[in-house]
Amino acid sequence: MSARNILVINCGSSSIKFALVNEAQTTFPLQGLAERLGSPEAVLHWQFGDTKESLSLPGTSHQSVLSKILPLAQEAAGGHLDGIGHRVVHGGEHFTASHLVDADVLAGIRANAHLAPLHNPAHLVGIEAAMELFPSLPQVSVFDTAFHQSMPPHAYRYAVPEFLYTEHGVRRYGFHGTSHRYVSKRAAEMVGVPVENSSWLSAHLGNGCSTCAIVNGESRDTSMGLTPLEGLAMGTRSGDVDPNLHSHLARTLGWSIEQIDRTLNHDSGLKGLSGLSNDMRTLYEAHMAGHPGATLAFEVFCYRLAKSLAGMACALPKLDGLIFTGGIGENSAAVRERTLEHMKLFGFQLDAEANARCTRGVGGEIQAAGSPRILVVPTNEERQIALDTLALLDA
Ligand code: ADP
């Protein structure tokens, strides 16, 4: 059988990210992004091999841009596209694993839309359009939350009245599950321990950031909660704040719920603290040049990450290693170093040279002799979605 091809689609409210994954190739034969959909500036960018192209599509809808993407994928796959894998943010308690899309799955995604009002409806548009355009291709949905459904109640329940959980689904769900799952399996392979008898701390640090405790291939706790705002300080998200901050801002400043939401999700985190940027590269350069806001943002980011990882350790029976992944985790030796300086009791010691070497897709172990393992593992959510799709096709 020749190597199979899966088109991976991440359909957002105004954008569609896509990649063609071939099971035998490490790079994507085709990848791209359609953005500002529905606006006069809508545009489709794609890279096919070494060739980059863009197409302006003013006012185009999700459906019509998908009708452009699918033939591109067919061409890149040499006419042999085997299936489509869709990233879905919120599976609530309905989904503990990836699923072949059918009417029940669509209903489940719809039923959880109140938990991810910006994301799930957009995913549905993408899935339904792809099903219409390619009715004979199997479609699979892969949920960010599914991996964390193995958390025990003491990790996923909030200390609030029970009916808020039983009647309204107020609990911790966690996100980035596809990434935490992928990197913990990769880490086990890299160091030669069986994943079903392994324990990891994982830090996914991109624009959104989360930590996770993973035991025997299952999530036991994670830092994000009901929404992806809980936990670490992120690019533009505040992470944990005193829950009374909401009523405080409403009372003292007269802010509306929308204004509070917007501030905590879009104007906080690294951006809010630094007053400069949400981008760790820019901030680190400014920090080195003496910008006080950038220094504060860098310090808060690393300290809160260390505190979260130390807390996650409560869920582990042993530690096989600490994993760094995501744009910041994979590239910033400085963030890794500063974070570990706050975790003295764990005995982590970096090998400075190995730490500096791990950047731009280079992964590996970066601890000094005698230290618990520290790994940089490039994440690949698209590949994990394709692997799940292939596994369901095989089943
Ligand atoms: P997303 O969550 O949108 O997928 P990424 O995983 O690409 O985002 O991560 C984006 C973050 O990674 C940004 O803060 C960016 O500055 C940071 N990053 C990328 N390269 C580097 C680098 N060399 N040093 C420090 N931070 C980096």
UniProtKB/TrEMBL annotation:
<comment type="similarity">
    <text>Belongs to the acetokinase family.</text>
</comment>
<dbReference type="GO" id="GO:0006085">
    <property type="term" value="P:acetyl-CoA biosynthetic process"/>
</dbReference>
<dbReference type="InterPro" id="IPR004372">
    <property type="entry name" value="Ac/propionate_kinase"/>
</dbReference>
<dbReference type="Pfam" id="PF00871">
    <property type="entry name" value="Acetate_kinase"/>
</dbReference>
<keyword id="KW-0460">Magnesium</keyword>
<keyword id="KW-0479">Metal-binding</keyword>
<dbReference type="InterPro" id="IPR043129">
    <property type="entry name" value="ATPase_NBD"/>
</dbReference>
<keyword id="KW-0418">Kinase</keyword>
<feature type="binding site">
    <location>
        <position position="17"/>
    </location>
    <ligand>
        <name>ATP</name>
    </ligand>
</feature>
<keyword id="KW-0963">Cytoplasm</keyword>
<keyword id="KW-0808">Transferase</keyword>
<dbReference type="InterPro" id="IPR023865">
    <property type="entry name" value="Aliphatic_acid_kinase_CS"/>
</dbReference>
<feature type="binding site">
    <location>
        <position position="381"/>
    </location>
    <ligand>
        <name>Mg(2+)</name>
    </ligand>
</feature>
<dbReference type="GO" id="GO:0008776">
    <property type="term" value="F:acetate kinase activity"/>
</dbReference>
<comment type="pathway">
    <text>Metabolic intermediate biosynthesis; acetyl-CoA biosynthesis; acetyl-CoA from acetate: step 1/2.</text>
</comment>
<protein>
    <recommendedName>
        <fullName>Acetate kinase</fullName>
        <ecNumber>2.7.2.1</ecNumber>
    </recommendedName>
</protein>
<feature type="site" description="Transition state stabilizer">
    <location>
        <position position="176"/>
    </location>
</feature>
<dbReference type="GO" id="GO:0005829">
    <property type="term" value="C:cytosol"/>
</dbReference>
<dbReference type="GO" id="GO:0000287">
    <property type="term" value="F:magnesium ion binding"/>
</dbReference>
<feature type="binding site">
    <location>
        <begin position="327"/>
        <end position="331"/>
    </location>
    <ligand>
        <name>ATP</name>
    </ligand>
</feature>
<keyword id="KW-0067">ATP-binding</keyword>
<dbReference type="GO" id="GO:0006083">
    <property type="term" value="P:acetate metabolic process"/>
</dbReference>
<feature type="active site" description="Proton donor/acceptor">
    <location>
        <position position="144"/>
    </location>
</feature>
<dbReference type="GO" id="GO:0005524">
    <property type="term" value="F:ATP binding"/>
</dbReference>
<comment type="function">
    <text>Catalyzes the formation of acetyl phosphate from acetate and ATP. Can also catalyze the reverse reaction.</text>
</comment>
<feature type="binding site">
    <location>
        <position position="87"/>
    </location>
    <ligand>
        <name>substrate</name>
    </ligand>
</feature>
<dbReference type="InterPro" id="IPR000890">
    <property type="entry name" value="Aliphatic_acid_kin_short-chain"/>
</dbReference>
<feature type="binding site">
    <location>
        <begin position="279"/>
        <end position="281"/>
    </location>
    <ligand>
        <name>ATP</name>
    </ligand>
</feature>
<feature type="binding site">
    <location>
        <begin position="204"/>
        <end position="208"/>
    </location>
    <ligand>
        <name>ATP</name>
    </ligand>
</feature>
<feature type="site" description="Transition state stabilizer">
    <location>
        <position position="237"/>
    </location>
</feature>
<keyword id="KW-0547">Nucleotide-binding</keyword>
<feature type="binding site">
    <location>
        <position position="10"/>
    </location>
    <ligand>
        <name>Mg(2+)</name>
    </ligand>
</feature>
<comment type="subunit">
    <text>Homodimer.</text>
</comment>
